[in-house]
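Q: Trace token order:
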Amino acid sequence: MKSSRLVLSMFVFLLTSTGVSDQNSNDLGAATTNNGNAEIRALLDSWAKAFEAHDIDGIMANYAPGEAVVAYDIGPPLQYKGNESYRKDYQEFLAQYDGPIHVEYRDMRILNSGDVGFVHTLERFTGKLKGGQQSDMWIRYTGGLQQMNGKWLIVHDHVSVPTDFESGKAMLDLKP
């Protein structure tokens, strides 16, 4: 209970004391309310560019080194601990696609205070799977960032999709 209050207090502090930026998915160059938000947005755009190109080194350059990364992705396992573990997950995901995977952001919100940042957004991935099938899905993304040696890096990813509890299946066809 004590730790829940601490987390809630930190979140309220972030909301009330920092710049908040709502970003439109079609305006990738929109101005942000402060330097930190602009730098975080640039990092996310860099990630999307590397992701589209299947550039694993470019993707992972946006993440903290070593064991600082903890990620909760759509598929198993329950969590990835460390940069190398998450790199393998990315490699497996990218290997399913033939050609670029386009990324679109919708309803992005960025908050930051000091050396801690937070972002949540809807992300759309479109591309062609190895079998020739077109892929088009929206996911929910929440990221935690930390400024290390003057550079923003992702330390936490949480990727999810809604679940139909009656069928037990992920709902990959929902659209905003």
Summary: The radius of gyration is 16 Å.
